[in-house]
Design brief:
The complex is a heterodimer of chains A (363) and B (340). With 363 residues, chain A is α+β, with helices and mostly antiparallel strands. Chain A is 26% helix and 34% strand. A six-stranded mixed beta sheet of chain A has the order 6-7-8-3-9-10, with helices on both faces. Chain A has a five-stranded antiparallel beta sheet with strand order 13-12-11-14-20. In chain A, a hairpin with a 2-residue loop joins strand 4 (57-62) and strand 5 (65-66). Chain B folds into three domains: 1-45, no CATH class; 48-94, no CATH class; 105-339, MetI-like (MetI-like fold, Orthogonal Bundle). Chain B is 67% helix and 4% strand. Chain B contains 14 helices and four strands. Chain B is flat. The model of chain B is unreliable at 1-17 and 332-340 (pLDDT under 50). Classes of the chains: A alpha+beta (363), B mainly alpha (340).
């Protein structure tokens, strides 16, 4: 097992830059998720870790060892590919055994280890099948079996459950997390699905356009996004953003919007006093941090229901607040119909304010 | 709800949907609503005869150009057909009997044909795949492939003539080259019984290796990259990667190449006729050349038909064998499309 250090790494494809000056430290035994939309450089990063891509600039260390010039087979890693990359002409057993065979492990040990891995993944009964006879979930388990059978020092997972159906994906999230905790092997897990990253990882590295946006625990990423992009990317349904002005009213800072004028908390005011760079800003608030009701209540702002979507356990209300769109997640018993008036209030402890136009978070 | 078992619902009684819905048996099995009746009426679809008549014109054309001559061939093989020697007489299997029991040249032709085919195929496959591996992904791949393909563009008869002159013992450039290197003596490569066959093989390899290269190159583009990478991460080097991943993925492509070339070899005649004419001393008298001699030099068309028929049968049998041999790897490869 090993820690992983990515130090000032760049990746160029010709003149296109895929990864820009990336720095990530992943302690030994941690589950690190690299999260970002497609084309953000996360897969390039993983492939550089695997040794499948040349590192254009910078260094990658496994523990104390610089691995830039090591071929994949010398890095002691295991990788699970997005499309599983099973060998179609080999049985499940031989697929899982492949890394051991390539290292010249003796037959009895191979037999024992493959069976142990298959048992853990509950695919013992499939060992004689060919990949073509497997379902998506079974293929994925086989690919994971091939990765864990050798007990490598580092796991690299490239969107391994992206192609499973929603129900199986939810199931596998828990399984993978459990497996990683049980084996204690460092894991780097690339995904575009923020739910996967949030639910499984110890740490998340959020990437966008080749640049690391934020690196932190899932709670940090969710509760203290460093910029508007991270705030908007993480969370489902996505955060609401409203253009506001920051106005000083008798020594008290307020956020002013055509539909409201609300004072910030004392702690937020202290932060703003240090850094405020202009009147214009963007206020961000998550849909479940807005209170909504069909009748007015103290501190409520008048809005209008555009449409409401019952989701079974929740209700998603798409409301209009003085010309701005506001998504609100509320209880399913909310009764406001289309076009009906409604009243909303923000949980001011939880809202965020971003500098304009840079998008950097004030709080 | 009471479980009402019993299979097919009476189609006649379910004619009106509304009335039927009330009485149709619906069962629940382990919490799942289960339907075991059939629809009241099936929507019409084209009958089998419709498809037959749509195909009929093609079948007629095919029969005219291929089945008719085939049956004529069978008929001729059972008769004594000799041009200018009176009416054809039925002789039963006499033509075949003569071939199998008394015709030394027939057996010699088979043996030479198999040797020739085996040599051509193995050399072409090895060289063709090797060339493809070298060319694949190279900067000049496109232009080099075009250059390599040139021999294939040449008519086989012309190829035979060109090589005839290249092999010529007095002014042939290749002969001079081989002689200077001390490999050949005074006699041309096609002039000696021990080397004449090799001379033919070289021409075939020269002309048709590019086809194998072309097919293999197409196949190599389809080798899934993630499998290669997975194998590298698993601990394989380049060479093991080639044998473990690339080659198995090439099987179906190689099968097509081998099938094409083997069938070509079995009806091969142009180069042998122009280059050696079956000689010297029958050293290159492979079966198709002998067949040509019997039919169109001696005009024993009945006997020729018998030879042609055996050749055809063996070709079909070997072809089927080849397909079966490769069927395993090919069917295993079937999921590649969905994987890639």
């Amino acid at each position: 097992m090993a820690s992983v250090r990515i130090a000032n790494v760049w990746k160029y494809y010709g003149k296109t830059v895929a990864v820009k000056d990336l720095n990530i430290d992943c302690p030994d035994g941690q589950f690190l998720s690299v999260l970002g939309p497609s084309g953000c450089g996360k897969s390039s990063t993983l492939r550089m870790l695997a040794g499948l891509e040349h590192i254009s600039a910078g260094d990658i260390y496994f523990g104390e060892r610089r691995v830039n010039d090591l071929p994949p087979k010398a890095r002691d890693i295991a990788m699970v590919f997005e499309n599983y990359a099973l060998y179609p002409h080999k049985t499940v057993f031989e697929n899982i055994a492949n890394p051991l065979r390539l290292r010249g492990t003796d037959g009895a040990t191979i037999e024992r280890k493959v069976r142990a891995a298959a048992k853990m993944l509950e695919i013992e009964h499939l060992l004689d099948r060919k990949p073509v006879e497997l379902s998506g979930g079974q293929k994925q388990r086989t690919a994971i079996g091939r990765a864990i059978v050798r007990e490598p020092q580092l796991f690299l997972f490239d969107e391994p459950i992206a192609h499973l159906d929603a129900k199986l994906r939810a199931h596998m999230r828990g399984e993978l997390k459990l497996m990683q905790r049980r084996l204690g092997t460092t894991m780097i897990y690339v995904t575009h699905d923020q739910l996967e990253a949030m639910s499984m990882a110890d740490r998340i590295a959020v990437m966008h356009e080749g640049v690391l946006q934020q690196f932190g625990t899932p709670q940090e990423i969710y509760n203290q996004p460093v910029n508007e992009w991270v705030a908007g990317f993480v969370g489902e349904p996505p955060m609401n953003f409203l253009d506001v002005e920051v106005v000083d009213e008798d020594g008290r800072l307020c956020l002013v919007h055509p539909g409201f004028r609300v004072a910030v908390t004392a702690a937020q005011q202290a932060l703003l006093r240090q850094r405020l760079s202009g009147r214009e800003a963007r206020m961000g608030i998550r849909p479940d941090e807005v209170r909504i009701a069909t009748a007015t209540f103290p501190g409520a702002l008048e809005a209008r229901v555009r449409v409401s979507e019952p989701l079974g356990g929740d209700m998603l209300v798409d409301a209009e607040l003085a010309g701005s769109r506001l998504l609100v997640k509320t209880r399913p018993d909310f009764t406001g119909g289309m076009g009906a008036p409604c009243w909303v209030a923000f949980d001011v402890e939880r809202w965020h304010l971003f500098e304009k136009p840079s998008g950097v978070a004030y709080f | 709800m009471a479980a009402r078992t019993g299979g097919r619902f009476d189609l006649g009684r379910a004619a009106t949907a509304d009335a039927a819905a009330a009485v149709l048996p619906v069962r629940h099995v382990a919490g799942v609503r289960t339907i075991d009746y059939a629809p009241a009426r099936l929507n019409p679809q084209p009958s089998r005869s419709y498809y037959f008549w749509m195909m009929a014109p093609a079948i007629v054309v095919l029969a005219a150009i291929s089945l008719y001559p085939f049956f004529w061939l069978v008929w001729m093989s059972l008769h004594n057909v000799e041009v200018g020697a009176g009416p054809d007489t039925f002789v039963g299997f006499a033509n075949f009997e003569r071939l199998f029991t008394r015709d030394r040249k027939f057996w010699n032709g088979w043996s030479l044909l198999l040797q020739y085919s085996a040599m051509c195929l193995s050399l072409q496959i090895v060289l063709g795949v090797l060339l493809a591996v070298i060319l694949n992904g190279s900067r000049y791949e496109k232009i080099l492939v075009t250059v390599i393909l040139m021999p294939m563009m040449m008519a086989p008869v012309i190829a035979g003539l060109v090589w005839y002159y290249l092999y010529n013992s007095t002014f042939g450039w290749y002969h001079w080259l081989l002689q200077s290197a001390g490999i050949l003596g005074e006699t041309s490569i096609v002039g000696s019984t021990s080397t004449a066959m090799l001379g033919l093989v070289i021409v075939d390899v020269w002309q048709w290796t590019p086809l194998i290269t072309l097919i293999t190159l197409a196949g190599m583009k389809r080798v899934p990259r993630d499998q290669l990478e997975a194998n590298m991460v698993d601990g394989a080097g380049e060479l093991r990667n080639f044998f473990a991943i690339v080659l198995p993925n090439l099987y179906p492509f190689l099968l097509i190449a081998i099938l094409l070339r083997f069938m070509d070899n079995f009806r091969f005649i142009d180069v042998a006729l122009t280059l050696t004419g079956g000689g010297p001393a029958d050293a290159t008298n492979i079966l198709p050349v002998y067949l040509f001699d019997v039919s169109f030099q001696y005009f024993k068309l009945g006997r020729g038909a018998a030879i042609a028929l055996t050749l055809l049968l063996v070709t079909i049998l070997l072809g089927m064998l080849l397909v079966r041999l490769f069927e395993g790897p090919q069917s295993r490869r079937a999921d590649m499309g969905s994987e890639g």
